[in-house]
Amino acid sequence: GRWLKQAPVIIVACGDHSQSWKRGDGKDHCDIDVAIAIDHMTLAAAEEGLGTCWICAFDAELCHEILELPEDMEVIALLPIGYPQEESDEERHNRQRKPLDQIVGWDRWESSSS
Q: Which residues does 38 contact at the CB level (< 8 Å), separation at least 6?
């Protein structure tokens, strides 16, 4: 959207698959480690009064090309950062959140259809 183009800074969070840790069964933790770093950046930005928005809907190939990244490097997410033009709407955020019992299971897997 237009607001994204107005952000003074957009961090392009990338992961290097040639350097990322792989679990014994081969699972590549690149995305997980980058997600942890992004989460810390969003919290640090909020502490400074800045607004962020995790962007996953983008053309990954185009970003890779524009930034001239090596083959093993993957663009994971975009993180625009700037000062918000308006205060956050806490009521709207509360309406959009799922109740805790829909996202937390106790002791075993419980299907939401049961």
A: 13, 54, 76, 77, 79
Coil/strand/helix, residue 76 = strand
Residue 55 contacts residue 38 (beta carbons within 8 Å) = no
DSSP secondary structure letter of residue 16: E
Burial of 79 (0-12, 13-18, 19+ CB in 10 A): buried
Angle at 38 between CA 14 and CA 63, to 5 degrees: 30
Which of 58, 59, 55 has the alpha carbon at shortest distance from 42? 55
Q: Can you tell me the distance from the alpha carbon of 52 to that of 111, in angstroms, rounded to the nearest whole number?
A: 33
Mean pLDDT of 33-53: 94
Gap between the Cα atoms of 68 and 32, Å rounded = 23
**pTM score, whole prediction:** 0.74
Q: Do residues 13 and 36 touch, judged by C-beta distance below 8 A?
A: no
Grouping H, G, I as helix, E, B as strand and the rest as coil, residue 5 is helix
